[in-house]
Amino acid sequence: MPEQKKADLEWLASFAEVPQVVNTESLELVGRFQDMRAIYHALTQHEVRRLKDVEGEDSPEVLEREASLSQNLDVMQRLDVEAELMQIQVPKVEAKDALIHGRITDQKSRGQAGLVAVLTDRDGGKVAGGEVEVDSSGYFALVLDPEKIKRILASKKDVYLSVMNRKGVVCYRRPAPLTLKEGETIAEHIVLSPSEIASAIGKARAEVKKPK
């Protein structure tokens, strides 16, 4: 499992174990770090352009500054992810409820909003009571009470976690069915490929443009 995906699932697991309170001060601190890194990045880019004109593109100092830019970009991306994770609000559930939650992200672990996490059967049909829109951090949470769980199990159908756009176009389905039972917590990190994201967005836009 990629390290980022593993880290995000561990983060979600820790939130499920204790009540979460959004730490405003921590969010503000991350925001300040983001601002500082962005300023550093802009200044370093300017300096790299100047050095290229003076010393040439292959000078040791230019190469060193470009490596620093690449490292700083990685840090900026991680800070963005940290800010998203810190805003996650895991719902409180009753002891016998099942919680299916996680994040839907791109390959850089950035949340993908505007999508819908939904439970489906093998044929893609929606399972009643198993649908929720993803928030701005890519987080989703499906809470199933004991009655919903019983109805799903009584259908004798395999249940899958799928991702749709708002027009109902499926862009992802979990390879294996879910194992549902009372009191179960299932954490999922769904990483969409660029083609899956483009497909979902493109099809959603096409639906909007269709003439009435």
**Major beta sheet summary:** 4 strands, antiparallel
The CATH architecture designation of the largest domain is Sandwich
As laid out across the biggest beta sheet, the strand order is 3-2-5-6
Write the H/E string, N to C: HHHEEEEHEEEH
Mean pLDDT: 82
> How helix-rich are the residues, as a percent range?
40-55%
CATH superfamily of the largest domain: Carboxypeptidase-like, regulatory domain
Number of domains: 2
Overall strand count: 7
Give the low-pLDDT segments: 14-22, 204-212
What do these coordinates show?
This protein has about 210 residues and is an alpha+beta fold. It has two domains: about 20-85; about 100-210, Carboxypeptidase-like, regulatory domain (Immunoglobulin-like, Sandwich). Helix content is about 45%, strand content about 20%. The chain has five helices and seven strands; from the N terminus they run αααββββαβββα. The protein has helices at about 5-15, 25-55, 60-85, 145-155, 195-210, and strands spanning about 100-105, 115-120, 125-135, 140-145, 160-165, 170-175, 185-190. The strands form two sheets. It has a four-stranded antiparallel β-sheet with strand order 3-2-5-6. A three-stranded mixed β-sheet has the order 4-1-7. Strand 2 (about 115-120) and strand 3 (about 125-135) form a beta hairpin. Helix 2 (about 25-55) runs antiparallel to helix 3. The N and C termini lie far apart (about 45 Å). The model is unreliable at about 15-20 and about 205-210 (pLDDT under 50).
